Amino acid sequence: MHMPSPTACPPADASPLTQAGTAAARKARFWDRIARKYAADPIADMAGYEATLQRVQGLLSTEQDVLEIGCGTGTTALLLAPLTRRLLATDVSAGMIAIAQEKLAAHPIPQLSFALADADEPAFGQGAHDVALAFNVLHLVSDLDRALALAVQALRPGGLLISKTPCIAEMNPLIPHLALPLMRAIGKAPRVLCFNGDALQSAMTRQGMEVVSVERHGTRGKDIRVFIVARKPA
Questions:
Q1: Is 44 exposed, middle or buried (0-12, 13-18, 19+ CB in 10 A)?
Q2: What is the dihedral of CA 83, 52, 133, 89, to 10 degrees?
Q3: Does the domain at residues 20-231 carry the CATH identifier 3.40.50.150?
Q4: Cβ-contact 226, 52 below 8 angstroms
């Protein structure tokens, strides 16, 4: 069945982004501003987070070069890096990366490095990684198909894309169509894409990926964060 392409939730303003770097700069400014608060906030569903960590750990090995797209303040990268040969964790926000570097300095892990990079731009190298991780970031990109295409390009043949993504279209319609635009208007929320789990799977298959597994790990109420493992053809 054909799934509709993801669309942006109603924006707080109708001004188009006319330059390629403008979206990245806007994303970076928002996350730079809230980086310290973000780092201090507790994980809302710790049991669900730990279930995801355990699942991902079972997919990693010390023979793999791993890329994380949208690593935030590096919490997950620090936990997963010892299970890899090398983990390059990236984020569009210099503020987030600075906090991640502080954590790494306090607890050095030789396999782990952090770098600035935008998920919407080709910054990951072609065929350089065995696994790409994308946790809580695919709904924040400017163009889902482009971001997925770049992630696929970064993978070696047979490589895995492992993602966990909030599907905004599965929320109460008042949230994406009223609450989020109002929060954006006062600078309390970023621009997000509205899609459901089926549309996200469809976007992955459009990029030639084979969807291997679709799961939900949440333990509190309705879980809108779909966990997907997809494979690049060998």
A1: exposed
A2: -60
A3: yes
A4: no
Specify which residues 88 forms β-bridges with: 67, 113
Q: Which tokens in the block code for residue 180?
A: 């989020």
Which of 135, 136, 159 has its CA nearest to residue 209? 159
Domain positions in the chain are 20-231
How far is the CA of 198 from the CAs of 165, 215, 224, in angstroms?
12, 12, 12
Amino acid making up residue 79: L
Q: Write down the pTM of the prediction.
A: 0.90
Q: How large is the C-alpha radius of gyration of the chain?
A: 17
- Residue 226 phi, psi dihedral angles, 5° rounding: -85, 135
Q: Quick check: 116 and 90 in contact, CB under 8 A?
A: yes
5-21 pLDDT, tens per residue? 566 554 433 333 333 46
**How does pLDDT run across 7-63, given as a tens digit for each residue?**
655 443 333 333 346 878 889 999 999 999 999 999 999 999 999 999 999 999 999
